[in-house]
Amino acid sequence: MPVALHVDSCHRHIVVGCYSLRSMTHYDVAIATPGHSMKAEYVKSLVNTLRALDAEGLTYTFLNKYSSFVPSARELTATNTYGNNWQTRVIGSGEFTCRKIFWIDSDIEWESEDFLKLLAAPEDIISGLYQTSPDGTVAVNKSDAKGRPNMMNKSEFLLDPDPMEVGGVGFGFVAVKAEVFENMPRPWFLIDRVKWDDLDFECNVGEDYSWCNNAKKAGYKIWVDPMVKVLHHKETIFKV
Predict the structure, then answer these.
(1) What is the pTM of this model?
(2) pLDDT the model gives residue 28
(3) What domains, with CATH codes, occur in the chain?
(4) What is the mean pLDDT of residues 83-105?
C-alpha cells in the first residue's frame, strides 16, 4: 500500500500516512510593530499591504508588544512574548518560522509596492528612506574615522538609485532576514555607547543603530534602497 506524503507550503507539516512527524507554521514575512497605538495612515498602509500579500500568495503574521522602554518593546515584539524569553535567538520564540521580519514603526505611511520590493530584496538587511527632521535628515548614519555615527541627509541619496551600503538605519521601515537575528547574541537591542571626544565623553547611539553595529560585528552589511521613500508622520505644535 503506498504511503501518502503531504508537504504544506504554508506549514512545515509533513504527514506520512496518518501520522504527523513535525508541524510548524512558516510565514514569508513577520510584520513587527512595537507600541500600543498606530497612526491612521499606518493602518491604511498595513491594510493595503496585507491585500497585496494575499494577491501575491505570500503568507504573513503580525507581531506587536509594548513597553515604555523602546529597546524592551523591540525585544518583546521580536520574541512575541511579555517575558523577553532570553533563552531564544529565534523570531517568535520558535512558535513559527519566517523568511523575513519587516519592522515598521506605527507613525510610518508607505506604498505596498515598496513593502514588496524590500521583502523581495536579496540583501540581508535593507531599509527604505524616511526623514526625521525638516532639514532633510534621514534615519541613516555613516561612521566617521573615529567610529562615531553621523546622520545623513536625503540629498546624499539623490544621485544613485541602487541600494547603498551605510553604517546604520532606524527601524522605521526595514526588512531583515530572520537568520540575522538567529546569528546575533541577546539582547539584540542592547544600547551601545561610543566615545565622542578626546575627553572620553560617551554618548548612547540608540537601540536601532546599536542593533546595526551588532549585526555588522556578526558579519552583515546594512543597506538602504534610496528609491523606497516612505512618509514619517510627526506632530507639530504651532504657536501664535
Answers:
(1) 0.87
(2) 98
(3) 28-232 (3.90.550.40)
(4) 92
